[in-house]
Specification:
Chain lengths: 416, 416
């Protein structure tokens, strides 16, 4: 089918699902979870086909082993995937929340009410579990979605999508075409151009993919191209805390976007050599002169720089960072405040591991992704990030001319 | 100067102003107002030069009379312009607001705090009063701004900018380069490409300008290309109210974006002929078969269509509207709810004029513009639309590994 036709169907579906009852949406989510559960073996079979093809590519050196691992669904991933759908059913409905209510004048009441964004375009790489996760988030937030997955997982993707849509077909009142999938590479280019129907693009994959998408569309993109996180060890830092936090931030999951990549150390920090020695004992490779200060290693490697003062640290971060998550380790609360106010990042931390930057750890109950955008949603994004709002104004025949001529006056009383 | 150099300076200025004290910002705004006041005659002189050149173009038929009028600063506009700056000084500071505060675990506290977006790029046409308005909004919200005005008002723009920057120079602690201006047409193309330094583009001008900008940048754009607003007169509408509301929505200021362009009438509305006759008496030209249903007349002209039922009305609006502001006139509260829930527009109104869609009327105290976007800010946008947020996390050495291994658990207690 032509991409525009698919997009038009999505737009229609987005209007159909916009006002759908919370109960119906939750029933849809639980039905999806049940069907995924009962058809696990079919999914594993489909995944096996993809894995066999992928294994050949790995053997030929044409596919990274890490991609193969992301592609592979095992019992644990399957359990998490299904539980993830059920968890989203349990969350509050982000749609229909009254964000404020204000009487503009007697009998003229304005409400700001949360509502869905519309149509989401999702472009993801090897991980097939993205389908059920994003589909569930879309359903809960009353958005329609068009998914384009990587070719390596095409059989798994098709099977999961088939199960999801078969489940949705069993739920009375659930509109059609809310979850659609496209397959050809050409669909990506078309999706990026389709600003008439698609309201938000969410890329899930490599930095390269996200960068490409951000540069090639004028549709808003939610995500981050890179995660160059910093830790600044101030003069007054506690050595034990510094070691503990840098080790956790670097080694707890080195390929995560919220892992630290650059360590800035105050020149006057007395225990600097002790710190560096301790990190080396943890098998962290220290690079004092990196090729550039914006390298995301994704491994147990750390760029290290000594700075004269906190201002230099802040300037370094604002110049070379990616606006993701940056931390100061200090016992000087004034410096902590200065750092947190002046570092222009989505997360500014004091005496904690950068690895806390995560929607679940923040208590959002779900995570759409982590955004380094400066508009709409920043940092770990929960369901709320998939909503916008509309203004509802109700009256009884009020006209602007009366206010313009001074016959009537606004009184702007907040009701809630 | 090279545009990239200007943009870099803006980025630096945005970091300098990000944490600036509310008092300093308000002092800056009041100083600007004072200087504009005391140098009114210089501004009028500069405006006279622009008007003389513009008059020749008008005479030659090369410039629209309406553009000439927007260009012209008179005593009223000058007074409003200066008062506008003082009004913004009086508003609450939108920066530094704690949006939520949550204890993730004992001693591990997360706050979501509002902060500026960064660098705003403003592209505007003839109206020179945009400079002081947008500059004031930017200062109050701690953003840096690069303005590019139309060539017709270049002398006025330069003079106002000179006065603003001279005023800012007199305010102690106010950082440099917060307000910058560029002049060449080529600067627009460069601004639209400058996503490394510019975080948000705000166009102020014709639909054509806004459309061009939206299509030619991947920087987020705040605004609306068109305002195709609808009124649906339901079967149960009150005839007097219908006449009053349609007349106000169409004639109170026909060239405004929130004026109604299409009137949808329920086929079974008994007084439909009476309504049409009354509108014609008000010299509103009715077009039953327009060239297309997305024409923004900007004049006392109205497309008219009869529909079979409310669903047809909703579908028409969601197909041909611009998502700006749409109204139902009805005495049937169920239909009113249905309309307001299912029409996908920034403003959905019941029994009131579409002309209420405005930041001042909504009680925002200032208006950045009206947005038909589905992300970040929608509808009339106040100062809040020039902010985003950051997450501050403070602790005492907490690491993720402890939570990952189950040694510690999050308890997610909301503190405010």
């Amino acid at each position: 089918m032509d991409f525009t036709e698919i997009a038009k169907k999505s737009k229609k579906a987005s209007l159909d699902i916009a006002g759908l009852d919370t109960g119906v949406k939750n029933r849809a989510l639980n039905t999806i979870a049940d069907e995924l559960e009962s058809k696990r073996s079919e999914i594993f079979d489909a995944n096996k086909i993809d894995l066999d093809s992928a294994q050949i590519l790995v053997n030929e050196g044409k596919l990274a082993k890490s991609t193969f691992n992301r592609l592979k669904l095992d019992e644990n991933k399957m359990r998490d995937m299904i539980q993830g759908v059920r968890d989203i059913a349990k969350l509050d409905d982000p749609v229909g929340k009254i964000l404020f209510k204000r009487e503009l004048d007697e009998g003229l009441v304005l409400s700001k009410v949360s509502c869905p964004i519309g149509v989401l375009g999702i472009i993801f790489e090897a991980r097939p579990d993205v389908i059920s996760q994003i589909s569930s988030l879309a359903i809960k937030s009353s958005n329609a979605v068009i998914l384009k997955g990587g070719k390596e997982s095409i059989n798994t993707n098709k099977k999961i999508m088939e199960i999801i849509n078969s489940a949705l077909g069993k739920v009375g009142d659930f509109p059609q075409n809310v979850i659609q999938q496209v397959f050809s590479h050409d669909d990506i280019a078309q999706m990026l151009k389709c600003d008439e129907y698609i309201n938000l693009i969410i890329p899930r994959g490599s930095n390269k993919l996200v960068k490409y998408i951000k540069e090639n569309t004028n549709i808003p993109v939610l995500g981050h191209a890179s995660g160059i996180c910093h830790i600044f060890v101030d003069k007054s830092a506690d050595i034990d805390m510094a070691v503990k936090l840098v080790v956790d931030s670097k080694t707890q999951y080195p390929s995560a976007c919220n892992s630290v990549e650059t360590l800035l150390i105050h020149n006057d920090f007395e225990k600097k050599n002790e710190l560096l020695a301790a990190l080396q004992l943890e098998e962290i490779k220290l690079i004092p002169k990196p090729d550039d200060w914006s390298t995301e290693y994704g491994d147990k490697i750390l760029s290290v720089k000594f700075v004269e003062n906190i201002n230099q640290a802040i300037e370094h971060i604002n110049t070379f960072g990616s606006g993701h998550t940056d931390c100061i380790i200090t016992n000087d609360s004034e410096n902590a405040q200065k750092f947190m106010n002046n570092v222009d990042s989505s997360g500014v931390y004091h005496n904690v591991s950068t690895r806390f930057a995560d929607g679940f750890r923040y208590g959002f109950g779900a995570e759409v992704g982590i955004s380094t955008n400066k508009t709409h949603a920043r940092g770990p994004v929960g369901l709320e990030g998939l909503t916008i709002y509309k203004y509802k104004l109700t009256g009884s025949g009020q006209i602007v001319d009366d206010y313009s001529k001074g016959i009537k006056q606004f009184h702007h009383k907040d009701l809630s």
